Amino acid sequence: MIQPWVWSTWVKAPILKSRKLFIVSACLPIVNPKLFEEISRQGTVLLACPEREPATHYGKIASMIRSNEESIEEVVVITIDGSPHCFTLQASVNEAEYILGKKLRKKHYVLVDGRELVEIDPVAIRVARYLHLVDKLVKERRQQVEEELRKHSLEHRKTMEYR
Predict the structure, then answer these.
(1) How do residues 8-31 score in pLDDT, each as one tens digit?
(2) How many domains does the chain have?
(3) 7 and 48 in contact (C-beta within 8 Å)?
(4) Do 79 and 135 have their domain in common?
C-alpha cells in the first residue's frame, strides 16, 4: 500500500475514520521500520515532512480532526528527536488544538537516537517555541544539558571541537 501523507490526504478521506490518528515523520519507516510496522497496526498513519511539504501542517491537521471528530479519539505524533524540521510537527498538533478551541486527546513522542520512543509533555513543546525560556532553563542546568547534548547531538560534539 502507498503510505498517505498529511498534506496530500483529503480531510474527509475514509482512512481518517479511525479511532487513532498517527502523524509521523516521513523518515520513520526508514529510521525504525519495526516501530513503524507496530504503529501501523494500531490506527491510521499519515507521513509528514516539513522539509518536503509546506510547514503549515497545523491548519490541515485541525481540519482533519474537525471533519472526523466523531471517529478520531486520539492523535499521536511521532518525530525524530533532534530534527529541527520534525519539531514543527509536534508544534502543529498543539496549534491544531488551539485552532479547534478544545482539548484533544493527544500524545507526543520523539524517537531518540533512532531507537527509544520517549513521550514528551505538550508543555515542553510549547516552551521550545520560546527561546528565552529555553535559554533560562539551559543556564540553570548548563552542565546537565551539555552532558545530554554530548550523548545525542553530533552537531554539538562537532561544534565543541571548533572551540
Answers:
(1) 999 999 999 999 999 999 999 999
(2) 2
(3) yes
(4) no
